[in-house]
Design brief:
17 helices, 490 residues, Cytochrome p450, 2 domains, binds protoporphyrin IX containing FE, 11 strands, 46% helix, globular, Uridine Diphospho-n-acetylenolpyruvylglucosamine Reductase, domain 2, single chain, Cyt_P450_CS, four-stranded mixed sheet, three-stranded antiparallel sheet, Premnaspirodiene oxygenase-like, alpha+beta, oxidoreductase activity, acting on paired donors, with incorporation or reduction of molecular oxygen
Length: 490
Amino acid sequence: GGSGGGRRRLPPGPSRLPVIGSLHHFLFVRSPLAHHAMADLARRHGAPPLMYLRLGEVGLAVASSPAAAREVMRAHAAAFASRPWIPSMRPAMERGAVGLVFAPHGALWRQLRRVSVLELLSARRVRSFRRVREDEARRLVAATPPGGAINVGVRLAALTADVTMRAVVGDRFDRREEFLRAIKEGSRLVTGFSLGDLFPSSRLVRFFSGTAGRVMDLHRKMFELMDCAIRQHEERRAAMASTPDGAVKEEDEDILGVLLRIHREGGLEVPLTMDIVKSLILDLFSGGGDTSASTLEWAMSELMRNPGAMEKAQAEVRSKLQGKPSVTEDDLHDLKYLKLVIKQTLRLQPVLPLLLPRESTEDRKVMGYDVPKGTMVLVNAWAISRDSGCWDDADAFKPERFEDGKIDFKGTDFEFIPFGAGRRMCPGMTFAQGIMELVLASLLYHFEWKLPAGMEPNELDMTEKMGMAVRRKNDLCLRAVVRVPVPTPP
Ligand code: HEM
């Protein structure tokens, strides 16, 4: 319902000054990371489950308890199912380049969501990329120099980019290197909140920050590369059609191939334009790579800090594999502890700690307060999953806490929502799990991992840094000692 007559009763929060809103409060918080800053601010203002801030021109509501998260994502699902258009991305969006991530809640979004969930990222489709994952995991293991120090994060980022690339546009895309470079540049450009985002109409700020221009250039580049990938797909299809076997077999299709088929077949409620096809593909790249890679890097970091958990996870994978040359996906079913390690990592280090921003499309009363239409809504999943009111020994890395299987990240347990919940929940969860489980199992199976000489487990620094996803500020450099011989490539 709306705010009706009378005075609005906004959720509690820091005092507001004209023009700059609550921005001055951020000058005094300990940490420049938005999820820490929001948690700090909430703590210093009586820990309201739903807090209201004005940042520049943007009204912002932050949910910091499971109950508030449930209100926003389930009870008032329809009112909070859109996303704000980040100012630095607006020029690209206004040209029609809207994919799944930023499509407003409506017919186009519903269409893209259905296609993504049922066709592009379904469990069946994810299974069809098994060979790609196994291939890349073996390559990673084979390329790990025994004894020498390796930068774990860099290797993992390259691996997830390669897997995503092959699943999305196929093995044979011949401008692969350019594409990978563009993706890397993209994750450098997007760094969560920037000053420009807080003053949406201030063209001056946007101009100074310069991000918009670079986003636009990169966007043009990506679209040009996508045009080329689409052309190659069409040519291959034409060539295949003239062979006795006929068309590309459905189980061999990459995601772009599936989308082009759907585009050709037509008959959709909202027709897919080529710009929408390209934007959706780009969403899968930006959603897919950094999130899984960072989660894996955090998992390795936590295991290095917790040698007991490392030992247990390694013992499990080695006893299940019994000396086999490498990990395959058939082996993953039984790796119960490994899956708990990933869950526990997502609890302590949800790589999108504020999920992705939502925006209210109507006035709503939430927990007795008025949340006006047009408010940006964030859910502090990080603060919630470390809340000592919900979790025993909340900051401790204990995979065993998930052993009873009662709590999962599927969007129904609001104290643990690393993939969000409700209509906008991450559609790439199965895709991500596929990569993360196989890669982590492979790293633990073949190698013992050593910290730099003289460093104790509890000295490993865990400082975070904001990028497309939250990652380590300082590189994780580890030495790999071979335990199970690495298979030589055929
Ligand atoms: C560890 C890995 C990942 C994490 C932690 C993660 C997390 C999230 C979160 C928190 C959201 C917002 C949910 C909400 O608003 O309630 C989201 C949305 C999304 N994710 Fe993921 N994600 C991951 C991997 C992936 C992968 C692999 C893909 C695709 C290949 C993907 C594609 C998307 C897309 C397209 C959306 C937007 C959905 C919409 O707005 O309707 N994600 N993800």
